[in-house]
Amino acid sequence: MAQYTRVSGIVGLITLQNPPVNALSAAVRQGIVDKVETALSDPKVKSVVICGQNGIFCGGADIKEFGPKMSGPPLIPMIHAIEAANKPVVAAIEGSALGGGLELALGCHYRIAHSKARLGLPEVTLGLLPAAGGSQRLPRLIGVPAALDLITTGRHVTAAEALQLGIVDQVTDNNTVDAAVKFALSVAGQSLDARRISTYPCPQPSHLDALFEEVMQKVRQSARGAMAPVACVQAVRAAATLPYTQGLEREKELMATLFTSGQARALQYIFFAQRAVGRWRMPSGAGWDTSKHRPVNKAAVIGLGTMGQGITVALAQTGLSVVAIETQEKQLMKAKQAVSSTLERGAKRRGVAPPLDRISYSQNIQAVADVDLVIEAVFEDMGLKMEVFQQLSAVCKPGTVLCTNTSALDMDQLASETPNPELVVGMHFFSPAHVMKLLEVVYGPRSSPQAVATAMQLGKKMGKASVVVGNCRGFVGNRMLMPYSEQAFFLLEEGATPELVDRALEEFGFSMGLFRMSDLAGLDVGWRVRKSAGLAEPREASGQSARIRKGYRYSPIADLICEQGRFGQKTGSGWYQYDKPGSRVARSDPWLHSFLEQYRARHGLVARSIDHQEVLERCLYAMINEGFRILEDGIAAGPEDIDVIYVFGYGWPRHRGGPMFYASMVGLAKVLERLEHYHQAHPDVPYLQPCSLLKRLVASGSPPVHRWREVIKKLHSQL
Ligand SMILES: C/C=C(\C)C(=O)SCCNC(=O)CCNC(=O)[C@H](O)C(C)(C)COP(=O)(O)OP(=O)(O)OC[C@H]1O[C@@H](n2cnc3c(N)ncnc32)[C@H](O)[C@@H]1OP(=O)(O)O
What we know:
2-enoyl-CoA Hydratase, Chain A, domain 1; 28 helices; Rossmann fold; EC 1.1.1.35; binds ligand LH2STWOF; multifunctional enzyme; delta(3)-delta(2)-enoyl-CoA isomerase activity; globular; peroxisome; 47% helix; lyase; 4 domains; N-(1-d-carboxylethyl)-l-norvaline Dehydrogenase, domain 2; 12% strand; 719 residues; eight-stranded mixed β-sheet; alpha/beta
């Protein structure tokens, strides 16, 4: 797992070999220990180069091997032995040097990087800290503020930034190993006293306490209950205040708490889930490995409202030629200006030229005649979308993939408007589309695997976490949102306030509670959907029937709020009040509280005290229950798909791994028991009735989340 050769007569070359990313598995660590010993004991060898095979230095510790019983040589003494060597050791960094990979490089005496290499300590994103000496060496090398930034965010830096920070000694555009060998020859025999980072004093910034206090506050605010970023700050503080060996002890102590934590498990699960969703499969059996995508060089966006503008920006930033269509001249001009200034701002941030000339604007749909793929993003109205699809079918060249950016409409109905329904898929972007990472790629019964593969490939190119889902009302994300918000409305009827519900959800880790989020998104959107579904009809002001639809419990509270013209932030009031329309600071609203009291009185409801636990159980377990139904219906292929959707698109706290992973951590039997309890109390709420897949999983001993697919497969084969 590590190869050793002697090059240029006196340089020992150690090559890490563990495809695809040369992760530091037990075998690789053993290989490094053995080959370093060989090199150091060979009198002909005067210096050593460490590199990785296939153009990547090292992706860090092998995450798949993490567990209670770790075998193989530990990293800390291995890296220490390299640093203590009496012959210069040079790291030749190509591709990535991440986590343990960078820590290994920091143990070397010199670091040469290729100009395209990326370096970083992303352990925090896996619920860990750089505990192979990284939290102690990096601040000694580049100073406390820069080390805090890298370690608490886990961000990867380019070779150029690494050079500027002082992480690497040289950057090359040529063959990195050749450059490192040349460098190793030049430093052979030189003193290494000044090259061992662990012996450096840690640079002391002025106002050390204030700096740490400020960073800790920032981290606590953005981490929302995540432990790792806090531990990272504590570890760097140890580097700044303690001698190296004591700092290392502190690093070890902090890591011990993180390593076995549920948060680390959740974050590592999400790391693999994000990659697993790329291996998509449709119920027909066709999937990522059997379906070839069509090349997309030119795409069109139809409809330049907020969503269409965001999609246009995202496509242009990906390097595609884009035809942007908007029939209303005034809106076209407004959109052109908005798209251009977003592209200019983004380009300025990245220090590149804005890709303005990649976009052509038109009011005429004929302009899409030669594009490879179209994304329709007009107003959420089936009649309008059908009209657009009919026009597209007449205009587009044969084979053009037609995508609809609907969040809830039936994409199969749209497909039926075209002579080639196999070319139609949904691409559900999230607003703002150039920022939000999630993309739901929706297939209907007639969508071809090639059309799905094309949309998935485009999503990947755009840097989206793209998830393939089946066609149903709300797909996965919005479908699960229905029971979640319904429970929140019921809780208001029973005595809660928006503030109480939001506080419980935010303490759980959501970036925003449901009511604050709804105010931001706009309450009128849901109102329009409920009206078109025949739910939000004007009814008697009081009496049971006002709170019943189709025989089930319904809360008209949100409809009544909308009837008052309270659509959220944009109108200056919704579930909260705002200083003025468009203002973002939500304030508790006495009007809303007295409205709730009057509402309860009118309907004969007696307010009771509701605690955070009930808020979480009712909102989250109802949502999770729907997640199980989605799996049962085959709309999502596995729990990972649902979890990636929730973490990347709905603000679910990443350190809790997504709703389905969370259910497995809580215990499926407990989730089932609480759902049964609440369903007994509210028998007229179907979302609380435990779904049969959940019962089946509990009956089969609540297997871990990665084994649910087996149970689902068995269930489907019996249907
Ligand atoms: C204590 C803890 C210590 C000392 C650590 O080092 S923790 C690990 C820190 N390292 C990381 O967090 C890096 C994780 N990896 C990546 O960011 C990326 O994989 C990459 C930038 C190194 C390469 O990206 P890319 O080319 O896009 O490839 P993929 O991300 O798709 O990965 C390819 C497959 O390799 C698997 N992989 C990647 N890194 C690791 C790892 N450190 N351990 C185990 N396996 C890893 C990844 O899961 C892909 O495999 P599949 O899931 O597709 O089977």
